[in-house]
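Dear colleagues,

As part of the handover before I leave the project, I'm documenting each prediction I ran so the next person doesn't have to rerun anything. This entry is a single chain, and its sequence is reproduced below.
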Amino acid sequence: MADDISDFSRSMGIATSGLRAQAGRMRVISENVANSESTAQTPGGDPYRRKVPTFTSELDRTLDAKVVGLGRIKPDMSTFRMKYEPGNPSADAAGNVKYPNVNSLVEMTDLKEAQRSYEANLNVISATRRMIQRTLDILKA
């Protein structure tokens, strides 16, 4: 019985690590979306560069299980979008303005994937709680 409770606790801890990781992923996506149309502060300078979250698998010694964590957040080194806007204060000598390398469609796809993973981890926690409650109800009877 003690091992069953320990397994339930471990399941909830692992799912919680998934919630934290996906929440961090959503934070990075929101930063990318918020800055998608920003320009450099100096003429010809570089604008916001898209960030890409990574995940790591870590051993949690208290749970004695592998959990997921938000790893390094790396810059996306793809090229910036260019627009010809000679009147823009961020334009270079040729009149071109660099815009962030953020693609809203890619960000929305990543956000949907993060949302689905977050919901899956929530479902694991909900199912585990229901199983614990049902076990306790049986033991009370």
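The mean pLDDT is 94. Helices lie at 2-34, 104-140.

All the best with the project,
I.
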